[in-house]
Amino acid sequence: MNFLDGSLFPENQQKLVITAAPYGPEWEPSDFPEDIPVTLEQQIQKAVDCYHAGATVLHVHGREDNGKGSKRLSRTNELIAGICECCPDMILQVGGSISFAPENEGDAAKWLSDDTRHMLAEIKPTPDQVTIAINTNQMNVVEQMCAADVHGTSLQVGSPGYNAYREMTIPAGPEWVEEHIRRLSEKGIQTHFQLANIAQLETVERMMRRGVCNVPLILTWVAIGGGFEAPNIYNLANFVRACPDGSVLTLESSMLNTLPLNMMAIAMGLHVRCGIEDNLWSQKRDRKMTTVEQIEQLVRISREFGREIANGKEAREIYKIGTFYKDADETLAQNGFAPNRKLGQKGLTLHG
C-alpha cells in the first residue's frame, strides 16, 4: 500500500469497519459467563448488541446449547438465519476453521474428510464471507499469551485445552484451498483471507495470476505468534507495504496486543477486529471486557482520531461484498497488482 501525503488525514481515509468476534470458540462458557452466549437466542442477541455498538462485520462461530462448539450444519443454518433476520445489514463472516460433522449415517457414507470443510459453502442462508487460511501452518494461539492472560480459565497453562491449542495446525494445502475458493465463489460467498505472513500473501497473488482466485483481496493480518507473525511495527510495516492498493486490510492480534494494534490500524486508515475471541482483558488486566465494551472503546478512539465508523451499507461497499472478477487480468487490475507478463515482454509490466 502507498501512503501519499495526506494519507493519515481522516478526510482521505475510508470510514472504519469494525469486525466483532464475540463467540470465543476457544473458551468455555465458565471462562466468562457474563459474555459468552450459549443458547441460540443468546448468540443472535449478541450479534444485535455488537451491531448497535458499531460493529458491521460479525465473525461467527456457533455453539450448541450445552456450550460446546457446534459441528452441525443445521445449527449454523439456524444461527445465520436468526442473525440475518435481526441484523440484515451486518456482514456475516463465518469462521473457516469449522469442520461440520455428518448428522446421520447417510451423510457419513457420502462425506469425505475434505468435504466436511467444504460444507461451509452449503450454509443457508448464504453468509457474506467465509474466512480461509493459506498454506498449511502452525497456529499455536497460546504461544505469546502470558500466564496472566489465561489464569483461571480453561486455557490455564498446562491444562488439556492449553496443550491442545499449543499443538494446533491449520491444514490448507493448495488443492484444497483452490477448490474451496471455487465452491465459495460459485455460491456467491466472498473469500476473506486470514494471513499469517507475507509468504501466504504471495501465494494468494500467485493464485490470482493463474486465474484460480478471481476475487477481491479482502484480508486480515493475523499477528498472534505461534507460526504467525508477531504484532510489532516492523512486521506490520512489511506486510502493509506488500499489500496492493486495491486490497482491504484488517489487523488482528490477541490479548493486550489487540488494542495497540487496532489503534495503529485506525491511524493508518486500515480496519480493526476485536472481541473475546481475541482478548478477554482491559489493558490493565484488572477486569474482563465484554465484546460490546471493546467495540465501544474502538468507536470512541476512532472518533478522537477524526475517523467516522462505517454503517452496514458503507461497510458492504468497502468490503466489495458481492463482487467477483471474470479472469486473472481483471483480478490483478482491480486489486492493484501489476499485470501478468505477456509472452516475450521485457521490463516492468504496466496496466494499459
TrEMBL record:
Highest rank taxon of the organism: Bacteria
Pfam family name, one: BKACE
Keywords assigned: Metal-binding, Transferase, Zinc
Cofactor list: Zn(2+)
Keyword Nuclease assigned: no
Keyword Metal-binding annotated: yes
Matching InterPro entries: Aldolase_TIM, BKACE
Protein name, per record: 3-keto-5-aminohexanoate cleavage protein
Organism: Crenobacter oryzisoli
